[in-house]
Structures are given as structure tokens and as C-alpha cells.
Specification:
The protein has 52 residues and is mainly alpha-helical. The chain has a domain of 36 residues. Helices cover 44% and strands 0% of the residues. The radius of gyration is 15 Å and the shape is extended.
Length: 52
């Protein structure tokens, strides 16, 4: 697996999006970036449809 680290802008976007939830859990941007320092990227390879 390729090691990737999210850039500061990506982490800041996430922190802005979930600011209320992070505050409720007592987290700061610094806490989050230390605890979640590895980027996990998932690329779908196929799609299943059960409604057709």
C-alpha cells in the first residue's frame, strides 16, 4: 500500500466541515491531524445495481 499523508489544506477542509462535531468531542485541528495522519483513499472498481 502506498503511504500518503493528507496535506494541510485537506485536513483544514475536513476540520471546517466537521467543526461542530469536533468541538463536541473536545478535539482541535491539531488533535485530529495527529490522530488521523494517514490518508485512506478508496477507488471503486465496479458498481452493482439491484433495482434493474
Amino acid at each position: 500500500m502506498e503511504q500518503q499523508h493528507p496535506d494541510t489544506a485537506t485536513l483544514q477542509e475536513y476540520a471546517n466541515k466537521y467543526a461542530d462535531q469536533m468541538k463536541a468531542m473536545g478535539w482541535t485541528f491539531e488533535n485530529m491531524s495527529k490522530d488521523y495522519s494517514q490518508l485512506i483513499s478508496v477507488t471503486p472498481t465496479r458498481f452493482n445495481s439491484w433495482g434493474d
